[in-house]
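Encode chain A's predicted structure.
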Amino acid sequence: MTTINGRVWLFGDDLNTDVIHPPQFFSLDEEKVKRGLFHGLDPDIQPSLRPGDVLVGGRNFGCGSSRETSVRSLKLNGIGAIVAVDFARIFFRNCTNNGIPCLTFARAQDLGVLRAGMRVDVSPGQARMTTDGGQELPLDPPGPFVQRIWRAGGLLSLLPGPRSERGA
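Encoded structure for chain A:
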């Protein structure tokens, strides 16, 4: 798995999916969905995001509804990875199924090392984050199946093609 390099966007505990992507931005229009990311929290975040940026949070990241629109917005905005103390289970699965790596800190206190805007490298396959100052933060290693989904870019990429492509 490739290393993700981006800026840290720092959030606290209990970041709700309706805060990540407010309901007024639910749409089939990808640009509207993309624009809605964190709009209710701070409308200046989304236009400032760059591909590969890393969201970092505390406990219960992604709590709230199980709607995939928040994950879709993260994907459309090119979020490289999410690192948190822990995740709401459905949010973790939705991100994984869409190819967004979600990793947890091996030591919760390492969250305090990170500052908003600092550059980090996240190596999902090696379960570590390296700060721009060279400090290595261990992450909990994901299982092999989860890593396989991330490498494929999402769960759908692992499914076999149409029957005509399989010779059936």
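The helical segments are 17-20, 30-35, 45-48, 69-76, 89-97, 144-152, 163-166.
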